Amino acid sequence: MVILDKNQPFFKGSTHTHTTFSDGRYTPKEVLKIYKDRGYDFLAISDHNRFISNFDALIMELIVLCGCELTFYLSERKLPIHINVIFKDEKTRYRYFMGEAGFKYHVHSYEELNEFLEPIEEAIITLNHPRTSYINYDDILKLTALTSIEVYNHGSCIRANNGVALSHYTYALAKGCNLLAISADDFHAKEKVKYIKPSIELVDRHIGGFISVQADDSTKNKIFSSIQNGRYYASMGPEIRHLEIINGEIYMECSSVSYIRFYANKDLLKIERGDNLTSSSIDLAPIDFLVEGKGFIGKTQYLFIEIEDAEGKLAWTNNLVPILQK
Ligand SMILES: [Zn+2]
Ligand SMILES: [Zn+2]
Q1: Ligand 2 centroid from CA 18, angstroms
Q2: What is the distance of C-alpha 162 from the center of its chain?
Q3: Which ligand has its closest atom nearest to the C-alpha of 128?
Q4: N or C: which end of the chain has fewer CB within 10 A?
Q5: Per-residue b/e over 45-64, b at no fewer than 16 CB within 10 Å?
């Protein structure tokens, strides 16, 4: 079974972007041009608590997904929780949010937050930057409407070198929440270093997290449903070019990397180190996906691949267990 196919095109995009419509530096049109010039195929604009109307008018050969980063203030937390909602289309969006007005939600409990998010249909709902928001691992499990989690947030990486949230992701998977892995920019293009200003401000400094999606064609609907179905990989740079389950093995091809790691249930099943690795595989026979085990995790809840290039940039497949169990 081919999961990602090297003979089919990939579409590159970021799902977390700010513009002058909230606290971003550039207008939506400027942002789209920045990404288009860098070879991106799609972008979700996700301003804080605001929806830009008429997204379709913004599309200039770049597909724009209709999104928003919602701020939730919970009574029991000092820091708010940021959740990205990306709608399939504006029609679905209008069913829940009318107009362009700002929203900030004060909720008393996770139950109230879930009651707000759960009725939203046809949406990709992502927990953003769990490390920057100091989200407790167990609190992820309380957010029942989530479809995905930011395993990498480039903005958090620039600001405080805490962009990778792999342990938040694996904890949720181990506890049976089958969330997808998102890597995104959280593009603001504003320098937030308070005391030492970089001498040159470069837009490219703010671009470094993306997902690469396989879809039957490059329409908005197809790209949206491929993301929903996890038909993509998440990356800081390296490329996963092929992923297949064949002859009782998982087989993967990638751009040149230094490490390939197969993670399952808190362990590294396999790690390869080399100067120019471009493929790897793992035998599935010894891995028991059904038998209940002991301790924290029990049966195998997750298996995914991480690659790392010579610069230390990472990329991840989604969790393969749901596919293997079919
Ligand atoms: Zn945020
Ligand atoms: Zn953001």
Answers
A1: 6
A2: 15
A3: 1
A4: C
A5: bbbbbbbbeebeebeeebbb
- Answering whether pTM is above 0.85, one says yes
Q: Which tens digit of pLDDT belongs to each residue from 303-318? A: 999 999 999 999 999 9
* Cα 60 to middle of ligand 1, angstroms: 26
Strand-strand pairing, 249-264 and 148-153:
unpaired
- Residue numbers of the domain that contains 294: 240-326
102 Cα: distance to centroid of ligand 2 (angstroms): 15
Do residue 24 and residue 113 come from a single domain?
yes
Ligand 1 mean position, distance from CA 69 (Å): 7
Residue 3, in any domain of the structure: no
Write out pLDDT tens, residues 179-218.
Answer: 999 999 999 988 665 555 555 568 899 999 999 999 999 8
CATH number at residue 59: 3.20.20.140
Q: Count how many residues are written for the chain.
A: 326
| Nearest ligand to the C-alpha atom of residue 24 | 2
